[in-house]
Design goal:
Strand order of the largest sheet: 17-18-16-15-19-20-21
CATH topology of the largest domain: Nucleotidyltransferase, domain 5
GO cellular component, one term: cytosol
Keywords: ATP-binding, Disulfide bond, Kinase, Nucleotide-binding, Rhamnose metabolism, Transferase
Helix content: 25-40%
Number of strands: 21
Distance between the termini: 48 Å
CATH superfamily of the largest domain: ATPase, nucleotide binding domain
Radius of gyration: 22 Å
Shape: globular
InterPro entries: ATPase_NBD, Carb_kinase_FGGY, FGGY_C, FGGY_N, Rhamnulokinase
Number of domains: 2
Domain Carbohydrate kinase FGGY N-terminal: 4-235
Largest sheet: 7 strands, mixed
Organism: Planotetraspora phitsanulokensis
Number of helices: 18
Length: 472
């Protein structure tokens, strides 16, 4: 039996999960969960990277001896090291406001259309490239490390940039599969800070002596580069039986798209807001970021009501399409009183606000399902590929109402699960690197029992509902 530790960092919590592989049997166990709480200091919103590091070490201690360790996280955020390898300040949170107006000021140097031809990325104001242009510590930096690469460096002393996360920075040439060094230099970002690229499965060193002592692990324990963007790990674990599938990695954000053998870089694709991010084995994750369960999470937090199952049961009985929102409207991006923002959005768009909490929950979920439908339809049209099934993975796979609404809205069967897709993909890439696994998706199919939701009702009802709002 082989045991792998997957460190899976999300926007609100981090986990250390052990994945045991014994022939065709795969077991997944969460051994430690810790809070990922942003900290605002001196007017800037930071990640508490030291708390994440300590939470990871605590989890590795609880995991016991493992055959390898891998780390995945959200994208775009980074740490900067000085010439002595010391961290220059806490990484800044992507929801911090420092990048406001940066992209617009950059267009005189490099237009959005030209940038898209190189990077293939959806315009998001918090992309790494814009953060670096607003970075006061840039002139002191010797190395840029994305969050998983920074934590790997602290574990092993080895510096590198895993390619699935590097491809989200806006500094990666999606066609060449290399850093876009010329683009960086043109923008005044020193290309020398960009470390050597690593592919998923590449070795990232073994544990420092002090880390081995603190965790009780062997200093010979390897750390393996996985598909370190959590969505890339999640997509790697999609239990697809056919190639003609769309995926929704559903968590705080929803990343909705399909796998493509090559990037789609048309002007229409750019204007539609699609990204071409690198996936496992050089595939392209052709996707669009859609706001995810964040709106629901913030609503529940504002109500002080932790009984989400009861809210979902009530929402199922609420009147359909009472009100709809565009989940990607900027009003829903920042933390705050989300129910009040939903009401204000409805007033602004000529709708009656939802009548109570159940109606608000239904409004959010119906709006997400419509956004998923629109994104999948756009991806199919722009890529020329066909889709016959939707795989919904991540935390949203637990939300039966959202899954059923997605099937109803798209007119396609929705296969929900695995919930722990990112951690599972993380661990199975490690296992494949050691020769324990050959076909990741085949093993997931045999080890998981996902739930399939068939479309029901009249899809024209969803079409008419979707026509009520101009989505971003």
């Amino acid at each position: 039996m082989s045991v792998y530790a997957a460190v899976d960092l999300g926007a609100s919590s981090g986990r250390v999960i052990t994945v045991r592989i014994d022939g065709d049997r795969v077991s997944v166990d969460e051994v430690h969960r810790f809070t990922n709480r942003p900290v605002r200091a001196a007017g800037t919103l930071h990640w508490d990277i030291l708390a994440l590091h300590q939470g990871m070490l605590d989890g590795l201690r609880l995991a016991g001896q493992v055959d390898s360790i891998g780390i995945d996280s959200w994208a775009v955020d980074y740490g900067l090291l000085d010439g002595d390898g010391r961290l220059l300040g806490n990484p800044v949170h992507y929801r911090d406001g420092r990048t406001v107006g940066v992209a617009e000021s950059m267009t005189d140097t490099l237009g959005n259309a030209e940038l898209y031809q190189v990077t293939g990325l959806q315009f998001l104001p918090f992309n790494t490239i814009y953060q670096l242009l607003a970075e006061p510590l840039l002139d002191r930096a010797q190395t840029l490390l994305m969050i998983p690469d920074l934590l790997t460096y602290w574990l092993t002393g080895s510096r590198g940039a895993e390619v699935t996360n590097a491809s989200t920075t806006g500094l990666y040439d999606v066609r060449a599969g290399t850093w876009a060094s010329g683009l960086a230099t043109r923008l005044g970002i020193p290309s020398g800070i960009l470390p050597e690229l690593r592919r998923p499965g590449a070795p990232s060193g073994t544990l420092r002596a002090e880390i081995a002592e603190e965790t009780g692990l062997s200093p010979a324990t390897p750390v393996t580069a996985v598909a370190s963007h959590d969505t890339a790990s999640a997509v790697a674990a999609v239990p697809a039986r056919i190639d003609r599938f769309a995926y929704i990695s559903s968590g705080t954000w929803s990343l909705v798209g399909l796998e493509s053998p090559h990037p789609v870089l048309s002007e229409e694709s750019r204007l539609a807001g699609f990204s071409n991010e690198t996936g496992l084995d050089g595939t392209i994750r052709y996707l669009r970021n859609v706001m995810g369960l964040w709106i629901l999470q913030e609503s529940v937090r504002a109500w002080g009501d932790g009984d989400l199952p009861a809210l979902l049961r009530a929402a199922e009985q609420a009147r359909p399409f009472q009100a709809l929102i565009d989940p990607d409207d900027p009003a829903f991006l920042s933390p705050g009183d989300m129910p009040a923002r939903i009401d204000a959005y409805c007033v602004r768009t000529g709708q009656h606000p939802p009548d109570g909490r159940a109606a608000t929950v239904r409004c959010v979920l119906e709006s997400l399902a419509l956004a998923y439908r629109r994104t999948i339809d756009d991806a199919v049209r722009l890529s020329g590929q066909k889709v016959e099934v939707v795989h919904l993975v991540g935390g949203g796979a637990r939300n039966a109402l959202l899954c059923q609404m997605t099937a109803d809205a798209t007119g396609l069967p929705v296969v929900a699960g695995p919930v722990e897709a990112a951690a599972l993909g993380n661990a199975l890439v490690q296992a494949r690197a050691q020769g324990v696994v050959t076909d990741i998706r085949d093993l997931v199919r045999r080890g998981e029992q996902p739930i399939t939701y068939q479309p029901r009702g009249d899809q024209d009802t969803w079409t008419r509902a979707g026509a009520r709002l101009p989505f971003h």
